[in-house]
Structures are given as C-alpha cells and as structure tokens.
Here is the input.
Amino acid sequence: MRFSEFRQERILEILKANERASVNSLAERLEMSPESIRRDLRVLELNGFVRRVYGGAVLAPSEGDRPFADRSRVNAPEKNRIAEKAAEIVQSGMKIFVSSGTTTLGCVKHFHKHQDLTIFTNSIAVAAHFFSHGWGTSVRVLGGSMVPEYQATFGHATITALNGHRFDLALMGASAVHIDHGFMGFGEDEVALHDAGRLQANTTVMVADASKFGRFGSVRAFGLGDAHHVITTTDIGEEFVQRFNELGVNLHRV
Here is the structure.
C-alpha cells in the first residue's frame, strides 16, 4: 500500500469516528501539511468517500440510495428557510421550471402565496404536491426516463420537452457548488437538464444549503455567475460571499 493510500484510510477512519474534521486538525493528527491533506480529500471525494465542505470534510452520504422521504428530512429547517425566501422571488402569473430535488420540493410548498402559476417540472414529487394543493396552478410534467430513487424523469426526451418552452424563472437545486467550477452534479443527465433550464429562463434561482458549498461534483452544469439569485444558509464560506459579490449575483443567506 502506498503511503498516500494509508493516509487516506486514516482520514476515513477519523471521519467515521467524528463525522466531520477540519483540514488543520487532520494535518496535525497525521503530521502532514494542509496541502497534502487537501489533495487526499480531493481524491477521496472523487471516489465518492467524502464530501469537502468549507475548511474540511464530512463523510459522503449515499443520498441516491436513501429513500426520497429520508432525504427530505436532512437539514429540514434550513431547507424550509431557503424555501420561504425562494417564494418571495416568485410572482403571480409566472411560468416556472422547477427541477427535481428535496429543496425545490420544499420551495413549491410555499407557492400558495401566488396565483395563476404555470409549473413545468421533471419531478413527480413536485407535481404530486399540487394534486391536493393546486390553488388553480397549471402543472405539466416533462416526459422522459423515470428514475425511481429520485422520483423524477431525465434524459434526452426530458430536455427536448423543456427546450420547447421559455420560462420567467428556473428554480433549481445543486448537488455541489465549487468556487472555481461553479454549480455541479454527479450525473450527466441531471446537469444537462439544469443547464437547459437556465438557458430557457429569464431568471435563474439556485437553492442549496451550506453543506453543498465547497463540494466538488463529477460534472459541471454552469458557472457561479450564470445564476441570478442564490439562496443558501448563513454558514457558507466567505470566499463564496466575495465571489458572488464580484460576479453581481444576488446572494440570499437565510
């Protein structure tokens, strides 16, 4: 076993015992430089073992293997604050694309404040919410290949259906937000749909709690400056605050 592999195994052991660790604490415990620890964390993240966050890392949850309802309960209070803020940006009469995801599902639960909305979505869960909470809202589900664990449709047919429309607003989540690479994901179909949604909308609103910031995905959707509004929690890293300010993006920390 190479020394770097041994070091990475030790990092995983520490994270399993403590759930979260900072770069500095790992460097001190393993008697390595912070730069070496950061390189190890990048490798571990690319292999799906950890998720990098501001200043350190946490064990990567197997979100895709968990039931949708369980994922909805993760960081629920933070997601609710994000959802309330997103609803303030929405205006009555808008035509909106809402991507699949637990945070975006939370957002539509606050849309009752608005009238005459037209919602396009690839999320069965989002569409199902309006079965009993319609408020006169028109809802259309984009066709495509169904992915049961995400309760959503993806693929070429989904993007083709999306591209046939223009939207006042695109409301989308992010699996990873990287300071240099922008909004990212872990599946090509997911990020392709997000990029198409952005291009078809007059205004792009991205919603994600702070745990997604500093995370590196495997596929890039679009740059940080391509969003008009980013809604997140108060504990994101200062480097993101500065970068969004430089790019002229409206950052909402709730």
